[in-house]
């Protein structure tokens, strides 16, 4: 093993969090029980905010960015893990309070590790990443709600990471999926994943009435703000909306009317600290319903060295589908 290795580290420069490449040694890593040789990480919206400096994601500095990683256990002081185990880590505060995945090696707490299902390689687990696993958590939440058997399910931010994985999973599970995107040029791509209807992003982002024409049996929303308020107002009696993102804004200018007159549920999705019981359900949904050809079609693999530009691109809404980061390059 090399005694030093490259990582993308967010540091304080003149009071601002700024990301850049640094060489780390093993002595720099946190004193956690499991040492993992990281092979792949990924790019999520939150990573874009952290690396571009457009959002204050890191709550302490210096911080190795990257909310996901996949790799092989090299050393373990914990009996549950042994050298050679294939593991993935999603969230658990990585890139916020804990050092994350944009590095060749990382030391991690044993309870953060997920044993990879046989269905997925390390690279595929990062093509899924937090975005894909969040899409699966959202589907799990909608299915637990249990009242969405028929009707249309809307996916917003459709051409992004959460959106792309949500569409292919929902379609495979037999739902009729409508995609909302601001990029009409992605309609063929979204149709290839299983979307059968399209709504322009602007139709949902204008302020609308408290109760609108009932349309959606369910929805998975990555956008928030007025878009989420409109979706709630358009959800049918006893439908549910899983809210997971804020790509359009963190506010929610909504009324209680859909909830008290139509029994609509707003289900919050938090991937970062989801307990293992929920994570296992999400990975089971992915193992059962993820079409690996669709996963390949929605994924590009990029070297770690391209991260600064990729971070700008995802925050600008220019990335389609998922990006795997090869941390060795
Ligand atoms: N709750 C959680 O635990 C959790 C986990 C993962 C992600 N998230 C959140 O979920 C969201 C999606 O994450 P992601 O990794 O899938 O990001 P992403 O790949 O960048 O996808 C976001 C999509 O939202 C749409 N969008 C971008 N800017 C917009 C705007 N101003 N107004 C309306 N739509 C806009 C775009 O889709 P179109 O071009 O198709 O319109 C974009 O592709 C982010 O807000 C992220 O922070 C939350």
Count of discrete alpha- or pi-helical segments spanning 4 or more residues: 10
What is the count of structural domains?
2
Determine the N-to-C terminus distance: 16 Å
What is the gyration radius calculated from CA atoms?
Answer: 20 Å
Helix content: 25-40%
Q: Short summary of the structure?
A:
With 329 residues, the chain is of the alpha/beta class. It has helices at residues 45-52, 122-145, 161-172, 187-193, 201-205, 225-233, 257-262, 276-289, 292-298, 307-315; strands at 4-13, 16-25, 34-43, 63-64, 68-76, 86-90, 105-108, 114-115, 152-156, 176-181, 195-200, 216-221, 235-243, 265-268, 299-303, 322-326. The chain has 10 helices and 16 strands.
